[in-house]
Write a structure and sequence with these properties.
The complex is a heterodimer.
Chain A lengths: L3 E3 L4 E4 L4 E7 L6 E7 L6 E6 L3 E5 L2 E6 L4 E6 L8 E9 L1 E4 L3 E6 L1
Parallel strand pairs in A: 2-11
Antiparallel strand pairs in A: 1-3, 3-8, 4-5, 4-9, 6-7, 7-8, 9-10, 9-11
Chain B lengths: L4 E3 L2 E4 L5 E6 L6 E8 L3 E9 L2 E5 L6 E5 L5 E5 L8 E8 L9 E2 L3 E5 L1
Parallel strand pairs in B: 2-11
Antiparallel strand pairs in B: 1-3, 3-8, 4-5, 4-9, 5-6, 7-8, 9-10, 9-11
The chains are: A mainly beta, B mainly beta.
Amino acid sequence: QKEVEQNSGPLSVPEGAIASLNCTYSDRGSQSFFWYRQYSGKSPELIMFIYSNGDKEDGRFTAQLNKASQYVSLLIRDSQPSDSATYLCGYNFNKFYFGSGTKLNVKP
Amino acid sequence: KAGVTQTPRYLIKTRGQQVTLSCSPISGHRSVSWYQQTPGQGLQFLFEYFSETQRNKGNFPGRFSGRQFSNSRSEMNVSTLELGDSALYLCASGNSGGSTDTQYFGPGTRLTVL
């Protein structure tokens, strides 16, 4: 079993819609969770981190963490074509673990 | 603050050669991690250094090695290159290396092995 599971996608949403990206993880002791955005040919860019159960909002992005269910999600409101990228979920538990990423396509 | 820098950005080598990649972390950061990214395998953890000591290691053969200097700069070496080593090698720096630390990636070094 992989430490981090993500649907590889692609997830296609129309411009202006809400994109919902999901991730499950295996280590119950994990304390910190991250979402990175990676454009094709570029390196991952940190967009959100969350430590506590519940929601954390930053602009159009909301991260949701449920430690009991070992589940973390990322909502992107008012999706734009510039949001089209691969989104990597990860966590830090002694070292960093990353999922394989979900490819998001936002169609104009 | 300047971000994480990696040199060189692109490398072309032939099988059997060796290569050294360099990473300079964000000023003040003491943790440096290395990753290999390929289309098929995703982001694979190689190793992490903190204050010149290797703290964690991934499941890669001994041909992959690294070190960290007193100024936190890090190098990664791959000996006896194989075709399968062609990948994007990413360096990431963190502040404390603790369980709530975040990582910031450099632009990567694209290695092609012919």
